[in-house]
Known about the structure:
The complex is a heterodimer of chains A (314) and B (109).
Chain A: H1 3-11, H2 17-38, H3 44-59, H4 66-91, H5 110-130, H6 135-155, H7 162-177, H8 189-207, H9 226-249, H10 253-263, H11 266-272, H12 281-303, H13 308-311
Chain B: H1 7-15, E1 21-22, H2 23-33, H3 42-54, E2 58-66, E3 69-76, H4 78-104
Amino acid sequence: MNRDEKTIARLIKVYPKSYRNERGGEIVATLLEATSQSGAQLGMLDVLDLIIHGMEVRLGITSERFAGRVLDAAAMPGLIVAAGLSAFLLGNALWLPNSSLPQPLRTGVFHTFGPVIYAIWISGVAGSLLWPQRRRVFASICVVSTLAAIPIGMLFFASANLTMMGLLLGFGLPCALAPTATVANQRSFWRISSGVALFIVVWWFGGGVGKSGQGVTYLSVEWVSVPRLGSAVFWIVGISFVTTCLLLILRRTTAAGALVVLTAPWMVVAADYGHNENGSIGPTSVILGIMLVWLFATWLFDFRQPEKAVFGSA
Amino acid sequence: MTDEMREPTFLALAALADGRKHGYGIIQEAERLSDGRTRLRAGTLYAMLDRLTHDGMIASAGEETVDGRLRHYYELTDTGTSALTAESRRRVSVSKEALRRLRLAGGLA
């Protein structure tokens, strides 16, 4: 057994046993044929490509599975919401380490490189809309850059705005994890408009609801403060819950799952600002919990289904 | 709105247009059809084959062992043939229109 054969034999173990039994011999043969015919060794990108596919199969996030379809549906709307939030934060200069700002806005050195992070998110969604086939790469760059901000912030003895970063990560991860679609349909009207609609919901309720005497006032600098986010979450999750129920009644299970995935990031806010002045975080967590339990149960049910629909026909 | 087929998917389906092929055969043919611009990697290929099988565009077309290695063959289904035909026509139509405009603009001899 030469070096490539040993590497391939080890690599193939990244796939679950059922898949290996079905496809393992074929994949090994293809890889061996490719390396022997080209005379080249197995490259790093080949290895990475195989590991990614193996993990997708293992986690049940291939495009044939419920989780894969849900992530695919949530991918572009999530990126659009993340880009909208980034544009707002960037446009309102919520990134300067200004000690004169009230406490909730004084979020440390993260804001000194915050513009870079926000710009990456905006560029990421623009790139994904222009080149949908590369959406996973763009989303991964956004996610990794945002994660890198945490240790960099720590180097300067300052904590990053973890809530905002959590929201951005939550909205970007579905796209980073989603399987690539058969068709480049990520620019479809529904995907883009649902992302824009979701952001409008956030914008509207994030700025207005709960602000006594002034009615709905739209997103403002105050939006990122503790009570504003806390009170917004209840309405955002509530609307998502009602819409999810309607989608389930209409048997739009994938769309309902995608909406739950895009609502889940708000759990970060609910957990972080649990002492909401309106006391509405409790019900919010319960509603979000119900939605997540449904999503998990549906994923689990689908994950345990045999793969015969994919591999069976001869 | 008509969905645009991704290039690797188009190449994989096109590779099967003249008959059944196995995994490495599809990789070779896709590379040849794209003048070397697209090289499908194994993980991407099998993710695509799973998806296309699930969507009913391709089907399993038997197995055989060559030089001690298992070859699993795939072929286009009627659905796959229709999708490939529609996508090919769409691409030809766009190309023809682009060439027509270039001629009108004097940019093409």
